[in-house]
Amino acid sequence: MTKELIGTAIEVDDGKVTLSDFMGSDLSVVNAARVSFGKRKTEMDEKDVKLIKYLAAHKHMSPFRHVVFTFTLEGVSEVVCRQLYKHQVGCAYTSGEFKEAATTWNEVSGRYVEFDPEFHIPSEFRKQHKSNKQASQEGELVESNDEARAIYMNAIEHGFSSYKKLLELGVCKEQARMIMPISFKNALVWTASLEATVHFIKLRDHEGAQLEIRNLARAIKKLIDPICPHSIEALLNSEK
Amino acid sequence: MTKELIGTAIEVDDGKVTLSDFMGSDLSVVNAARVSFGKRKTEMDEKDVKLIKYLAAHKHMSPFRHVVFTFTLEGVSEVVCRQLYKHQVGCAYTSGEFKEAATTWNEVSGRYVEFDPEFHIPSEFRKQHKSNKQASQEGELVESNDEARAIYMNAIEHGFSSYKKLLELGVCKEQARMIMPISFKNALVWTASLEATVHFIKLRDHEGAQLEIRNLARAIKKLIDPICPHSIEALLNSEK
Amino acid sequence: MTKELIGTAIEVDDGKVTLSDFMGSDLSVVNAARVSFGKRKTEMDEKDVKLIKYLAAHKHMSPFRHVVFTFTLEGVSEVVCRQLYKHQVGCAYTSGEFKEAATTWNEVSGRYVEFDPEFHIPSEFRKQHKSNKQASQEGELVESNDEARAIYMNAIEHGFSSYKKLLELGVCKEQARMIMPISFKNALVWTASLEATVHFIKLRDHEGAQLEIRNLARAIKKLIDPICPHSIEALLNSEK
Amino acid sequence: MTKELIGTAIEVDDGKVTLSDFMGSDLSVVNAARVSFGKRKTEMDEKDVKLIKYLAAHKHMSPFRHVVFTFTLEGVSEVVCRQLYKHQVGCAYTSGEFKEAATTWNEVSGRYVEFDPEFHIPSEFRKQHKSNKQASQEGELVESNDEARAIYMNAIEHGFSSYKKLLELGVCKEQARMIMPISFKNALVWTASLEATVHFIKLRDHEGAQLEIRNLARAIKKLIDPICPHSIEALLNSEK
């Protein structure tokens, strides 16, 4: 049985995404679509694969909502998390927000090497895309990677130490955190139906998307592929 | 483990509701709410029960959306099914509609005893409520139960045989079915989050609701109670 | 201004659908998409039409959710109403259900001509489709239309008079109504975003759909077309 | 008529929220709830107010979804915007994200006085709450307000100038923006039903909420109060 997939994790965005729970399979889609016939199948055959393709092609989406996944994202930058908030129709999430996360930062020293687990630090800096204002140029890195990294690290260190100074002055966390860099890492539990999850993959695994988010979409696809391969394929093909 | 609960069924409305699948437990709620602390608990303790009560009381509902159930309803009248369509936020359903169901009726003979599995036949006829136009008087039955039953059965028999006559004339099913009695039975797969399920129970398990729907709400509560008892109790108490 | 469109009605399914209220226009879509530029346009130009096409083609759907319509359906059969319940994501509806409607039937006499406003009575009976079990053969009517109509009317009359007999015996309405024919007419208020409305039109205005529902989809398209023609065209083309 | 309310704005969080559009009123709620009676009222009376109270008290929420508002938020910090993403059920939003906003910053000079319209700068710094880790102590300010402000401004200036240095090195915007302080201001169009809007007000206008968000909740309440005062009052009272 595939229940052993629960707990599988893939590294993304120098954090990781874990398949924390799920229910259903390709068979759940088939059984839901055939509910009026009064039989529950326990094994897939060719006819079932055809049915799944038919449902996706004709946008009969309701059977694809009985398969549900829960993902836990840890150490993923806020920028990435925000994309998931936007796929909330048919989804639910619980976010460990900055406010709470801040309580655990007391232990973090001022040196940036130690921030590493707390802020997203790119290993490579990509060039700006020439025509698309919102994208990077695939595969092209800036010449001065070290210089970029030094500026980046220094900015995070400065932001974080300013945050701590404000706390020392007695400023409330909800105001002090406003100067923290947006690259702080977040934790998130995201529950979504098969339909919503594949919709996210479709929208985010393409050229125009930010690389970090594209990587997340690919990791999620990899995690759920063994659970309902026929449905995923049919849904991905249906809107092309 | 509670996974053995999958497949449990309870009879309602002379049909039945089955817990076909589920994921999560009280621990899922707790772990989602504490996602930023980076630890997943595997056993509940007193603090966790308190946290669940706190979340429900303060309407932090998102952690309750990571527990999800799939119910299959068979032999349940359309009137009851329609109530579930209305709780679709955070839910999904696949209905075996009349149209398809009709295809299996070819085997049903004209005698009403044989309709029994296809139409909802009340065993007892309740009196109209004196003040509430939309309800029945709890526990009070009409004097002439046999007479009521005869009228009811005759009406169903007449509706169904007229339907068959129209089909014989070559009338399309989508028009012929318009004269079928509303008591025909339906099959339905309903997937809903813990939050949505408890919201349904809260709205339907009370005096003003139709008895058949109230019975369904109670059956559903019974089916899910062993899975996340603390969350259900906390949510039911939170809006009183 | 287009606000004078409020109140426009189109006859469908021997009932009617009215545009009861709406907000927004093509300009709302454009202004939402350009919110970060801090200017609100008050007149459309070529660039805006291009932007709308781009948004639809790339499935940036959120700007299309700021245009919202309210439709009131009266005298429309329950079968048609049910299709709208299914498009509830991003929608809301309030249904005048059978239960309440029943209270106004006291004035209706037993003669079927008088049912006419209360039940859906087809003027023409279509033939069953040869290969598609769920559809009618477009444009082909049964030979014996009068005979079909007589059976249909008689079935409705029988169902309705049985319903009244049960009420006379003191049976509660919620049980008595179970023998009413499914063709009873309903009233419904349906509020949906532009995205959800066009999605409904797309799914229902095609060959496989029941004619009555297809007619509703077409009527709704006609009602909203003057409000945001560019968005509707772009959305209808985007998923082909 | 109240349509002249469109365009009304209230300042919040050193930005502003504008009622950009709306449809419906208390009468829409009443007419939706009474759809089956076939009459549309055009004036409220005592019975209608009672009906609204009854609907809210018994959680018949669907009639409250036919009143819809569109708000435009400008110059509001990302932290505040994020709260609105979470009320997406029954809502829609279009966010002018950082990425796009960045394109307009080329004109902004390096001096912090000129950032003022681009980042949220508190005029007063509140003390941390003694027991509630997530809140500030109402009405209590830190002693050294000027010092706090200097640290805050310096941090923003440093973050922003680092961002510009990375762009000069050719780093793509999607990576460079990761070091920007979270206090950057955003623009957002938010469309929500009356039900969802009041739910947001209820959750956010209370002691535990961040002051900036509480102020937004209050501003939104003020903007919509003239449109449907009875419904707002009934909904706010219903869950106490």
Automatic annotation (TrEMBL), chains A, B, C, D:
Pfam families named among the record's database cross-references: Thy1
Xref: InterPro entries: Thymidylate_synthase_ThyX, Thymidylate_synthase_ThyX_sf
GO MF annotation: an example: thymidylate synthase (FAD) activity
SUPFAM superfamilies, sorted: Thymidylate synthase-complementing protein Thy1 (SSF69796)
GO biological process terms, semicolon-separated: dTMP biosynthetic process; dTTP biosynthetic process; methylation
Record-linked PROSITE patterns: THYX (PS51331)
Catalytic activity reported: dUMP + (6R)-5,10-methylene-5,6,7,8-tetrahydrofolate + NADPH + H(+) = dTMP + (6S)-5,6,7,8-tetrahydrofolate + NADP(+)
EC class name: transferase
Keywords: FAD, Flavoprotein, Methyltransferase, NADP, Nucleotide biosynthesis, Transferase
Record-listed E.C. numbers: 2.1.1.148
List of catalytic residues: R204
Cofactor comment: Binds 4 FAD per tetramer. Each FAD binding site is formed by three monomers.
Coiled-coil ranges per UniProt: none
Binding site for FAD: S62, E107, H199
Pathway(s) this gene product operates in, as recorded in its UniProt entry: Pyrimidine metabolism; dTTP biosynthesis
Binding site for dUMP: E107, V108, S109, G110, R111, R177, R204
Co-factor(s): FAD
Annotated PANTHER family: FLAVIN-DEPENDENT THYMIDYLATE SYNTHASE
Family of this protein: Belongs to the thymidylate synthase ThyX family.
Subunit structure: Homotetramer.
Function: Catalyzes the reductive methylation of 2'-deoxyuridine-5'-monophosphate (dUMP) to 2'-deoxythymidine-5'-monophosphate (dTMP) while utilizing 5,10-methylenetetrahydrofolate (mTHF) as the methyl donor, and NADPH and FADH(2) as the reductant.
HAMAP family: ThyX (MF_01408)
Protein name stated in the entry: Flavin-dependent thymidylate synthase
Species of the source: Silvanigrella paludirubra
Lineage: Bacteria, Pseudomonadati, Bdellovibrionota, Oligoflexia, Silvanigrellales
